[in-house]
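pinging the channel bc i need a second pair of eyes. not urgent but kinda urgent?? the chain im working w is below, pasted from the shared doc
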Amino acid sequence: MIDDQLTETVINAAMDVHSHLGAGLLESAYEQCLCHELALRKLPLERQVSLPVNYKGVHLHCGYRVDILIPERLIIEVKAVERLLPIHKAQIITYLKMTGIPVGLLINFNVAHLKNGIRRLHA
């Protein structure tokens, strides 16, 4: 599956979650439901993956975690906020750089129409 097809599959799964749940829940609920939808679509994924900071050759475990990782292909950050801020985009771009993964999706479920809460980002 190429990156465009992969992100389309993830976005469709997120839209299914949003259409069933709507806005107003916690990020953890959306994350768990999205993982379920992705599993139904037979996508390999890891949830809450620890991301150490490499500082001058030393791996420091600072508590950073990737919400959903499709290994070596895609990072998915789930939000349930009033609006996406530049810091949210900066976070996922930094995660992409730290992992070498080419594409990330930032998905904010706390919107009336999910298409307004999705950002596709590259490092």
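so Helices lie at 3-21, 27-40, 86-99. and The first strand starts at residue 46 and ends at 50. — does that match what u expected or am i reading it wrong
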